[in-house]
Amino acid sequence: QAFIEADRHNGPSFVVAYSPCIQQQVRPSLNDMFDECRLAVDTGYWPLYRYNPALVAESKNPFILDSKKLRKDVSAFLKREGRFINLKKAHP
């Protein structure tokens, strides 16, 4: 939906997406990127939202929050990435 709205917008638009990389030291591995991204959304680490300025002309709120309910604890997500594991080791 975000890509469709960005494409339809008459003017500049951009989409920001979460994509883990090797530097984040994701555990168990980066092989399950879809699962990692879904976990980021389900824990609230990466909220899904859109801003559609065309809705202002319709007297609607242009901010749309797509990830409405957190389904998992964010600590489950943070424990999978080496950068957060190392931070916890350094500052318990």
Put the structure in a nutshell.
By secondary structure, this protein is mostly helical. The protein is built from 4 helices and 2 strands.
Notable traits:
single chain, 92 residues, mainly alpha, two-stranded antiparallel ribbon
Topology diagram in text:
Layout: H1 2-8, H2 33-42, E1 49-51, E2 63-65, H3 74-78, H4 82-90
Antiparallel strand pairs: 1-2
H/E order of the elements?
HHEEHH
Largest sheet, strands/sense/barrel: 2 strands, antiparallel
User: How widely separated are the two ends?
Assistant: 41 Å
Give the overall average pLDDT: 85
Global structural class: mainly alpha
> Which geometry do the CA atoms define?
elongated
Count the strands?
2
Give the DSSP E fraction (strand runs of 2 or more residues): 5-15%
Binned, the helix content reads 25-40%
Strand line-up across the major sheet: 1-2
Number of distinct helices: 4
The stretches of 5 or more residues where confidence is low (pLDDT under 50) are none
Backbone CA Rg: 17 Å
Structural account:
The chain starts with a helix and ends with a helix. The protein is 34% helix and 7% strand. It is built from four helices and two strands. It has 92 residues and is mainly α. The longest helix has 10 residues, at 33-42.
